[in-house]
Design a protein that fits this description.
Chain lengths: 409, 114
């Protein structure tokens, strides 16, 4: 029975390991994690964990009552991958000069938060437990907070810090209204009004160029491209993440211009026996979208289940519609379906002011997605109504020769 | 036993959240016509199972898709790890009666009901 090394101990890495054991993988299974923590769930970092109602232990993914049969190595820095020649094990190279060898390597190294300038006291990102703990340790009650960015993480952080008693919260994002380009004017207007009601000012069309520092070396605010300075005691930067795949440079694993590992619809990379899952991967998936970058929680679980099935030779799980969610000011926003941009939104129910919209998105006359604000029932029904489609023929693998399965090794 | 709702309040294949008890429970009428009661809150994170998808005597959480047995409360799929409590449910004269479990509920971390 061949061995598997999973590089990365976030959601995608953890669930790949879990799915492998669930599907009966009997061989060695090692998971290398960069962080010192056991695998944990990141979505609460900008919500309940930041708000203080969850502890680090509450975020743990593994079940203490039924822990996974996996060799965990934490605090490990990987520096390279040396592909094994036909049938020989691949070598994952570690910073301490040692290596880990396995017939199958699953790349699950995730992504790193993009910063605005260098580390500076008072300026924060939200990607790890430590990031959230540092922000939580700030005196947020009474603070003037500027949040840079207008995606989910930025808006969730704004929602949480105003709840924690911040004196003022300004969201400085490039879009005129938050999430308008992706989700349309109805949601954008509803979120804008929701944030305004809770005291969060969304300053649209704001291109942040730098976090400024005061005489004490702490962040003093955010400088915008138009010369405006937004004063702040605390700055939160939520402008996205970059795939943490620099360690693959020099390997035969093909990545795109932004560093995502290119994969076929089963997660196979350009190197047989090397797979990629989660935030660091870009799957060529005809259902969820060709060469679609992952980045959501659900993608990590779906990738993990698909790759684990491919590794043990089990039938591929049905491909479901993409799904993501966000919680802001107690309103649960759920999106299901594939949005490529340019879809037309129709209000099926609810209102902009009620923050209870149910939206349907159409592209070329076809319904492609729904969005609900506090509409779990409707969104769930839509997700279940979409028939799972068969996994298309592998593309990358077909061009680069047969992929390895555990039976071949 | 406690009367929680009328059969006419229930829709086949759907759940009904009952928040007059603490913690809230969810009552389900399956497509097959059976009635079940379990804790309403998913054991993973704060989500109402009454809004979930009911199939084959299981309910799928509307937030992260863990599924729970309506018969035993056992969780079938991650991310939830702990079962929900099952409450004995009976239908008498068109009314749904429930005997609340005396076990400790597995509420998700950070969730309390005052």
């Amino acid at each position: 029975m061949s061995d598997v090394v999973v590089v990365g101990a976030g959601l995608a890495g953890f669930h790949t390991a879990a799915a492998l054991r669930r599907l009966g993988h009997q061989g060695g299974l090692t998971v290398l994690g960069a962080e010192e923590h056991a695998p944990y769930d990141r979505p609460p970092l900008s919500k309940a964990f930041l708000g203080g109602s969850l502890t680090a232990a509450d975020l743990a993914l593994d079940d203490p009552d039924a822990p996974l049969d996996v060799v965990w190595e934490r605090g490990v820095r990987v520096v390279g991958l040396q592909a094994g020649a036909a049938g020989a094990p691949h070598r994952v190279l570690l910073a301490d000069g040692t290596d880990r060898r396995a017939e199958h390597v699953v790349v699950a190294t995730g992504a790193d938060a993009v910063r605005l300038g260098d580390h500076m006291p008072g300026a924060h990102v939200l990607r790890t437990i430590e990031d959230a703990e540092r922000l939580r340790a700030e005196r947020l009650a009474g603070a003037r907070v500027v949040v840079v960015g207008d995606g989910f993480v930025a808006l969730e952080a704004a929602s949480t810090v105003v709840e924690l008693g911040a004196a003022s919260v300004v969201v400085a994002g490039p879009e005129e209204r938050p999430l308008e380009r992706r989700y349309g004017p109805e949601l954008a207007a509803s979120l804008l009004a929701l944030h305004a009601r809770r005291g969060v000012v969304c300053r649209g069309g704001a291109r942040a160029v730098a976090v400024t520092s005061g005489a004490d070396g702490r962040a003093a605010g955010v400088m915008l491209a138009d010369g405006t300075h937004l004063d702040a005691d605390v700055v939160v930067v939520g402008i996205g993440a970059r795939p943490a795949t620099a360690w693959l440079a020099g390997s035969a694993v093909v990545r795109d211009a932004t560093g995502h590992v290119d994969c076929d619809a089963r997660g196979a990379t350009s190197v047989p026996g090397v797979w990629a899952v989660g935030d660091c991967a870009r799957w060529n998936d005809e259902v969820r979208g060709p060469m679609r970058c992952a980045g959501h929680w659900q993608d990590a679980l779906d990738h993990a289940a698909t790759v684990a099935a491919a590794l043990v030779g089990a039938p591929a799980p049905a491909v479901t519609e993409p799904y993501c969610w966000s919680e802001q000011h107690g309103v649960m926003v759920q999106v299901a379906g594939h949005l490529a941009g340019g879809e037309r939104a129709t209000v099926l129910d609810g209102s902009v002011d009620g923050a209870d919209l149910l939206l349907r998105y159409d592209r070329d006359g076809e319904e492609v997605a729904v969005l609900g604000m506090n509409r779990p029932r409707e969104v769930t029904r839509w997700r279940r109504s979409r028939r799972p489609r068969p996994v298309p023929t592998p593309l990358v693998a077909a061009e680069s020769g047969p992929t390895r399965s555990l039976e071949d090794a | 036993m406690l009367r929680v709702c009328a059969m006419t309040d229930l829709v086949p294949g759907e759940g009904l959240r009952i928040d007059t008890v603490v913690p809230p429970i969810a009552v389900f009428l399956t497509e097959e016509g059976t009635v079940h009661a379990i804790d309403d809150t998913c054991t993973h994170q704060d989500a109402s199972l009454a809004a979930g998808w009911v199939e084959d005597c299981r309910v799928e959480c509307p937030l992260h898709a863990s599924t729970f047995s309506l018969l035993t409360g056992d969780v079938d799929a991650q991310p939830a790890k702990k079962p929900v409590r099952v409450h004995a449910a009976e239908v008498r004269d068109g009314e749904v009666w429930v005997r609340l479990s005396t076990a400790a509920p597995n509420l998700p971390p950070g969730v309390t009901f005052a």
